[in-house]
Each structure stands twice: as C-alpha cells, then as structure tokens.
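Researcher: We plan to redesign the surface later, but first we want a full-length starting point. Tokens attached.
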C-alpha cells in the first residue's frame, strides 16, 4: 500500500459533486455477505452510574432478536457495569476512544489494554468530536487504529467532511485522504474485519439531513477507494456505517442502500426504544 502516492493523486484529482441519482436497493447477497452492524455512541451521557445501568437494560431489552450486530459505546467510567448488564445479550461492548501508549505519565488517558480487560470488543477512532474538540489529527488516529488492532480489538474508524468541505464538493477528496492516512500500515487482513463509519460532520446533531442516496454515493466511493488501496475482496468485506442524526424514521431507507451496512447512532442511542427500532430496521 503506497499511502503517499494515494494522497498525492487525490490532491490532483478534480472535485466531484454529491448529487446522486436514486440508488438501487440492497440485494440479498450483500446482506448475506456483510452482516449489518449498528453502534450506539452515548458520548458524555448519561450523568450517573444508576442512569447508565438503566439505559443499558433498556437498550438490551429493545435489541431483542435483531439480525444486526449491535454495539454500545458508554463513557469510560460506565464500561465495566454496562458490560456486565449486556454480557448475555446480542450487544457488544465498545469504547469511545483509547490512547496509543501502553502506560505511563499520561494524565487522563486510557490505554487499549485497560478497556480490553473490561470486555471491550470495538473501539471508536477518529470520531469528528475527537478530531475537532480534542485535536486528534490523522497521525494520532492512525496510531490509535494500530494500537486497537494490536490489542486484539476492532477499530471503528470514523471519517467525514465539514459543511464547508461539502459545499466545496471536497467530500470525496477529504474522506479518501483521511482513509489513506488513518489506515497507513494496516494490513488487508485487519481492514477486512474493521468498521468504517462515514459521518458527515455537518449532519451530526445539527438537524441537517444527508439524503440516503448521497450517503450511498459516498459509501460506494469509499468501497472503491479501499479496493484501490488493497483489493476488491477486502473492499467487499469491509462494513461501512453511516453516522449523522440517524433516527427510527430514517433508518429503513438508509439500510436499503447496497453499500450502507449499518449506522453509528448518537442521540437516538440514549433511548432504548428508538435504538431498538434502529437495530431492528425493516
């Protein structure tokens, strides 16, 4: 994989628009090949351990017999207790981030081995709020991705463009550069099992909506970029989530798209009934 060459070629590529025609519905073969996977990112919620336990119970009950794989990403202090509640359910335990060093004088940081010891299977890396609020750059995100894999867990790599980049028709270029930088040194075998989450920053908690056909166009582009970076078999195996104000009202149309393999849910994951409906999409 020649990351530098990929980035250089992107800088010279013309920008393309994102107004897409209606996408075909997801064929049954795609569903069989890639099991849908949806994650609930609780962010800095709820505000107490008691509330976190109640939310975990509600989400676990609402998940039911969902055909989709589910993940919950509670805040660090609640990972252990939430893990105990969901351990015998269909839900998997996730962590919202980790630091890329193993141990040492890093006040406030949490290592991969710490969350692994609590039963975590999936870890977010590159979420837009980590990129913007906490200044995680692509070099740091790449180190996190490699450390998560080294620790025996699965990265959920988040990428996406800002409103300004979207309006300038830079979505594909921005996402491809992030993909190339954040996956530097990651093998095809590891990429096949990880999750990519496309989250247009401008559609997260803003009330702005990314049309499902536009999201499908970006997902298809990302799968094509992965085939260039690795090979077609790897690209076909990767599950790509959509994240950006997903609700029970929007999930069915999103999940009908052939390259959208699940959702990364924010606000709606704090309501067991809503998250259960998203997991059990039609």
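Model: Full-length starting sequence:
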């Amino acid at each position: 994989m020649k990351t530098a060459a990929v980035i250089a070629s992107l800088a010279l590529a013309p920008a393309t628009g994102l107004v897409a025609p209606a996408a075909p519905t997801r064929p049954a073969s795609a569903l069989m090949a890639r099991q849908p996977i949806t994650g609930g990112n609780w962010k800095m919620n709820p505000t107490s351990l008691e509330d976190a336990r109640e939310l975990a119970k509600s989400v676990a009950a609402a998940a039911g017999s969902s055909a989709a794989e589910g993940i919950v990403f509670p805040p660090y202090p609640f990972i252990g207790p939430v893990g105990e509640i969901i351990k015998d359910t269909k839900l998997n335990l996730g962590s919202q981030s980790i630091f890329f060093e193993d141990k040492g004088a890093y006040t406030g940081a949490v290592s991969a081995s710490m969350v692994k010891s609590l039963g975590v299977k999936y870890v977010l890396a590159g979420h837009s709020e980590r990129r913007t609020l906490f200044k995680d750059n692509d070099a740091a995100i790449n180190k996190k991705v490699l450390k998560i894999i080294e620790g025996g867990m699965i990265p959920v790599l988040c990428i996406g463009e800002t409103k300004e980049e979207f309006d300038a028709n830079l979505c594909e270029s921005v996402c491809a550069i992030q993909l190339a930088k954040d996956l530097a040194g990651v093998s095809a075998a590891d990429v096949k099992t990880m999750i990519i989450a496309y989250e247009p920053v401008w559609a997260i908690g803003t009330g702005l909506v990314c049309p499902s056909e536009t999201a499908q166009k970006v997902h298809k582009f990302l799968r094509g970029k992965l085939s260039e970076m690795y090979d077609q078999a790897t690209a076909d195996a990767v599950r790509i989530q959509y994240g950006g104000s997903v609700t029970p009202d929007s999930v069915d149309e999103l999940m009908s798209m052939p390259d959208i393999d699940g959702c990364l849910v924010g606000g709606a994951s704090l309501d067991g009934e809503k998250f259960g409906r998203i997991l059990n999409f039609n």
